Amino acid sequence: MIELADMIRELRGQLTSALADGDGRMLRFELGPVEVETSVAVTREGGGDAKVRLWVVDAGASGTYGHAETQRITLTLVPKVVPPGGGPAETALITGDEVDDEI
Prior knowledge:
By secondary structure, this protein is an alpha+beta fold. The chain has one helix and eight strands; from the N terminus they run βαβββββββ. The protein has one helix spanning 4-21; strands at 2-3, 29-30, 34-45, 51-57, 69-77, 80-81, 90-91, 93-94.
């Protein structure tokens, strides 16, 4: 199993890779909201600093986690790009520079 945070971290890496791959291409895509639907196992670790953890589970394996409650969740993520020098976040474009006559 992987933690939900790890899944989102991997998604961020894949989207960053797609942004870099589009550099210098004529066709550009604006990156809109990203919806992720998954099943998670919710577990609670005991002790003085008890934590609740969300684990991404395989759709067919939800019945195999004896001490975990499984839930189906949908996340809507709105990717933004922060300029290298800082400043307000901008809409992400999966490509390079603007092309002449581009709409």
